[in-house]
């Protein structure tokens, strides 16, 4: 989409449960037309990416997908969502896309922060408590 995003996460891990407290997000979208829209898209995309990393799972039972409806895919709730601080990199380049770039990098920021906090690398999403046993 022509936009570049980088994120850093602050997390805690308690009894195998991961909580994201704050996400710092830097985005270079080229020439900025509407900074409020960029900020909103970065925040929403980040929350969606964190939801996938912490809760998003598709399971198969007897050869069929168990999850059938939106209510089977839990989203991160407001009280679970971290503060997202967005920095828009000044640029005079051609405007880039802003719809999905923060979604793609949120999981990477989260698992790297978990690794820094616990010393354990995460190789599978969503993050499960058993991946972090003995880490806190």
Task: Give structural notes.
This protein is of the alpha+beta class and 136 residues long. It has a single domain (4-132), classed as Aldehyde oxidase/xanthine dehydrogenase, molybdopterin binding domain (Aldehyde Oxidoreductase, domain 4), CATH 3.30.365. Helix content is 28%, strand content 24%. It has helices at 35-54, 101-118, and strands spanning 4-14, 17-28, 60-61, 64-65, 83-88. The strands form two sheets. A three-stranded mixed β-sheet has the order 1-2-5. Helix 1 (35-54) packs across helix 2 (101-118). The chain is globular, with a radius of gyration of 16 Å.
Break the fold down into its secondary structure elements and pairings.
Blueprint: E1 4-14, E2 17-28, H1 35-54, E3 60-61, E4 64-65, E5 83-88, H2 101-118
Parallel strand pairs: 2-5
Antiparallel strand pairs: 1-2, 3-4
